[in-house]
């Protein structure tokens, strides 16, 4: 018997028929003797509809009132799931964010969860009642509804799992787990039985859109075992003895799973991610002086623009250098305008931007203890004449920037090179 | 300067454009220096949509979870109206039922309002902030959302007006006031400047669908001055000096208004209502014995069927009598089945039902001090050969049951007979 938090997204909650399917999955867990809490999103499309009403009402909307409006979507689905579970003969009730309450700060529309008063919730779960909890919402100390920002329901689920000390947090999505790479690009991509929090963070932030990054960070901080699995396959009645999806756990937990033969020994590299949403900027003939680079990046930091890869080339002329870096494509226009305004202070010659680039990353905790991971990457890409425009590395990741047209080729080449192809 | 509670129904809140219109009406009151609270319904059609979801989830739905779902409609419109008011430059915020809170009993889906903690609300109104309050909802002492039953927003508005000691509760509807009779039947019907609570209760319960009956009863109990007016005409910026709609007040208040020439002297009869939703039942040859009538009406009372007009005729045979009464048409099938089951105990011969009847009522506090009102009614109808099938009276009302086909004729004849026709 375990205590489990389950989370279902908007696609799973879109309409009575799908809610009934979710209720069946939830009840199978309760029937197996587990204590169950379920966190739900709004019906697919509903939050967009509500956000649109807010924009029509007031383009510069007050986030506190925006939260009153948009939090209603999850309120509706939590009531409906409780009703549907009751129709299946289960004991169930909804617990709204303000009822529990889920305390948050008062950054309306992008609140962060603080303390959760879970005593009554735990008592209810222990009595065999399924708790249905709207995701995405909480209560500020001004006694007003807050929301966590789009996609916040994953974070709600992890926070509740931490608060009730759940054995596991199962996130049901429209994919059935985390893969070694995008299966649409590499047909032989394999579903991973387990990844570490750190790996998941790198995979999520570089384009493997399975879980909200924030929720993974919280799971790592709180030590919550997270499982990603599909609500649409037949394998959706997991129990403590099988892992139908992908477990996201700590390094130590992963080692324990290996020792207990729950998962096979890990590869050096866990997965390969790609991201086409970066833009490359190059400033030519910047003075090669102390403080020159700071003149470029300080105003971008002030504007909260997230600069990723940075390289500084030796220029053709002495005392000058070219500086290249990447920013999210969405920030490109703003970034360009900030740099043009600072042209005199920075003292560059030309500003060249390029959105036809892709970032390819190989991720794996294994590389901490193995040399040669980067070298394999560079060699494999060079063999296929793929030109590397920039490089960045972290403890468990190596990323390269390449021409966008070569994305699929690069991912396939690397997937094979690191021995990730399925048999 | 006054303290005003305004209430807008679902038609007025249906979509961004109409909400903007409502916001303009509300702001004009705030601009006039009044302290303003606004009670809103869900967008027209939204509550039906949510109720339908509940039925799909669970035909025998748990009313506590039903309330979680359906209360969201008003939550959305209250947030949107606050945002729209802010867009017009007004200070505004929403106050949800659980926030204030509006305490109710725990009869989910049909809760009754108890105490309202209005201190923070009053302080906010006094600071010049417009309070936007979702109608129809409250909080039980189990800390769960309750709703008041369909049409409950009128009651919310009156209860809040009582709690904040408002000078007036303005109910904006899709009619512009209470008329002497249905203007679709009598073109020369006049809008009434004022009616008493008692008159309004009689007019509402017999078919003049302007206000929820429950809200009028509460207004009478709490002494809240209610005004019914339209949100669609140009006359919708009332102030303390004019009465664009119809005031619903106490007897004493009405006399004061007459003395102060705010309204012209009242007619003997205030209005004429009709109701085609009654059914007539006749049980023939019931034993004329003590307890016989009780054998008929006790089981109907147990089934909460509201019996209205009752007449007992002397039967053709000695020791037997015919009993005729009316019930709402919606209850007719249930009523018939209950009576058939009790046939032996009651001992009747035939059970005859007729839905082709209409109840016509003349209402007016003036009849308390004047004889001859009923007599005028009977004579006027007899002159037109309209047959009276049953009669019932109260202190301020005389009702007759007639053939449904003669409804319009009877209303017109009586409107003229009592001198109500507009010049």
Automatic annotation (TrEMBL), chains A, B:
Pfam families (alphabetical): AA_kinase, ACT, ACT_9
CC per GO annotation: cytosol
Residues the record lists as binding ATP: 7-10, 173-174, 179, 184, 209-210
Gene Ontology BP, a term: homoserine biosynthetic process
PROSITE patterns according to UniProt: ACT, ASPARTOKINASE
Residue span(s) of domain ACT: 281-365
A GO MF label: aspartate kinase activity
Record keywords: Amino-acid biosynthesis, ATP-binding, Kinase, Lysine biosynthesis, Nucleotide-binding, Transferase
Catalytic activity, as annotated: L-aspartate + ATP = 4-phospho-L-aspartate + ADP
Enzyme class: transferase
Residues that coordinate or bind substrate: 47, 74
Functional pathway: Amino-acid biosynthesis; L-threonine biosynthesis; L-threonine from L-aspartate: step 1/5; Amino-acid biosynthesis; L-lysine biosynthesis via DAP pathway; (S)-tetrahydrodipicolinate from L-aspartate: step 1/4; Amino-acid biosynthesis; L-methionine biosynthesis via de novo pathway; L-homoserine from L-aspartate: step 1/3
Superkingdom: Bacteria
Family: Belongs to the aspartokinase family.
Protein name, as recorded: Aspartokinase
Phylogenetic classification of the source organism: Bacteria, Pseudomonadati, Pseudomonadota, Alphaproteobacteria, Sphingomonadales
């Amino acid at each position: 018997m375990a205590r489990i938090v389950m989370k279902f997204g908007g696609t799973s909650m879109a309409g009575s028929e799908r809610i009934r399917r979710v209720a069946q999955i939830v009840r199978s867990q309760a029937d197996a003797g587990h204590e169950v809490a379920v966190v739900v999103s709004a019906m697919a499309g509903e939050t967009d509809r509500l956000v649109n009403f807010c924009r029509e009402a007031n383009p510069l909307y007050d986030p506190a009132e925006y939260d009153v409006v948009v939090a209603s979507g999850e309120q509706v689905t939590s009531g409906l799931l409780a009703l549907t579970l009751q129709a299946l003969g289960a004991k169930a009730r909804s617990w709204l964010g303000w009822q529990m309450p889920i305390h948050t700060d008062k950054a309306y529309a992008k609140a962060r969860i603080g303390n959760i008063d879970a005593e009554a919730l735990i008592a209810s779960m222990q009595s065999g009642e399924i708790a249905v909890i709207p995701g995405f919402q909480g209560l500020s100390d001004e006694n007003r509804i807050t929301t966590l920002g789009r996609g916040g329901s994953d974070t709600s689920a992890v926070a509740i799992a931490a608060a009730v000390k759940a054995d596991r947090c199962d996130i049901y999505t429209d994919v059935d787990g985390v893969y070694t790479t995008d299966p649409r690009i590499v047909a032989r991509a394999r579903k991973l039985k387990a990844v570490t929090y750190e790996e998941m963070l790198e995979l999520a932030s570089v384009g493997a859109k399975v879980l909200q990054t924030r929720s993974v960070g919280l799971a790592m901080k709180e030590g919550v075992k997270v499982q990603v699995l599909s609500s649409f396959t037949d394998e959706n009645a997991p129990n403590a003895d099988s892992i139908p999806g992908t477990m996201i756990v700590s390094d130590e937990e992963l080692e324990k799973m290996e020792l207990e033969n729950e998962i096979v020994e890990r590869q050096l590299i866990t997965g390969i991610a790609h991201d086409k949403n970066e833009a490359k900027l190059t400033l030519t003939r910047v003075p090669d002086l102390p403080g020159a680079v700071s003149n470029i990046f300080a105003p971008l930091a002030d504007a909260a623009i997230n600069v990723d890869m940075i390289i500084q080339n030796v220029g053709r002329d002495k005392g000058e250098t070219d500086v290249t870096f990447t920013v999210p494509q969405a920030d490109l226009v703003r970034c360009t305008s900030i740099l043009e305004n600072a042209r005199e202070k920075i003292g560059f010659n030309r500003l060249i931007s390029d959105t036809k680039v892709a970032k390819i990353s190989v991720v794996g905790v294994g590389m901490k203890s193995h040399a040669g991971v980067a070298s394999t990457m560079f060699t494999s890409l060079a063999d296929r004449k793929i030109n590397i425009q920039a490089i960045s590395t972290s403890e468990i990741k190596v990323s390269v920037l390449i021409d966008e047209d070569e994305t699929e080729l690069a991912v396939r080449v690397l997937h094979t090179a690191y021995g990730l192809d399925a048999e």
